Amino acid sequence: MLKGFFTAAGTLLIVVLILYLAYVCSKYIGRAGRIKGTSRYIRMADQITIGQDRTIAVIQTGTGYLLLGITASHITVLKELGAEELQEIENPDGQKTEFADFRSVMDRIGKRKRNE
Fold first, then answer.
1. pTM score over 0.70
2. φ, ψ dihedrals at 98, nearest 5°
3. How far apart are CA 47 and CA 69, in angstroms?
4. CA 34, chain centre distance (Å)
5. How far is residue 100 CA from its own chain's centroid?
6. How confident is the model over 73-88, as a mean pLDDT?
7. Containing H/E element for 5?
8. Spatial separation of the C-alpha atoms in residues 55 and 74, rounded to whole Å
9. 71 and 54 Cβ atoms separated by less than 8 Å
10. Which run of H or E residues covers position 30?
C-alpha cells in the first residue's frame, strides 16, 4: 500500500517537474526570438514569417530602412523605406502587437475553455 503511494507521488512529482521545465524553456525560447543584434550600424526593426523558410524583415540602416525578403537561399531588397513610411500596426481590438509569452498564451486558452 505504502509502496503504491510513493510510486504515484514520485510520478506526479516527475510530471510537475517536466511541466515546470517546459515552461522555463519556452520562456527563454520566446525571448531568443526578440534578441537584438549587437551591430553598431544596422539592426532588425521587425520581421514576420510568411511561410516555411520565408521571412519579410525591416532592417534599420542609419536613418533609412530596407524591406527585405529572406529565404533559405536568397536575401532580396524589396524596397528602401524612409522613417515616415513606417507605421505601427494595431490589432483589431485596438491593442499594439506584442510578443506572447507562455503564461499569457495559457491564460488565453484557459479563458476560452471556461467560456465554452
1. no
2. -135, 160
3. 10
4. 7
5. 6
6. 87
7. helix 2-32
8. 11
9. yes
10. helix 2-32
- pLDDT attached to residue 62: 81
Helix (H) or strand (E) holding 76: strand 75-81
> Is the confidence at residue 114, as pLDDT, over 80?
no
SS3 label, residue 103 = helix
The set of cell numbers assigned to 91 is 490589432
pLDDT tens digits for range 95-111: 555 666 777 778 888 88
Residue 53 has a CB neighbour count (10 Å cut-off) of 9
Report the alpha-carbon distance of residue 108 to residue 26 in Å, rounded.
Answer: 16
Residue 66 has pLDDT above 80, yes or no: yes
Give yes or no for a contact between 33 and 99, defined as CB atoms under 8 angstroms apart: yes
Please tell me the predicted confidence (pLDDT) of residue 51.
Answer: 87
Rounded to 5°, angle at Cα 102 from 89 and 97: 5
Q: What is the mean pLDDT of residues 40-69?
A: 89
Following CA atoms 93, 87, 68, 100 in sequence, which dihedral angle do they give, to the nearest 10 degrees? -30
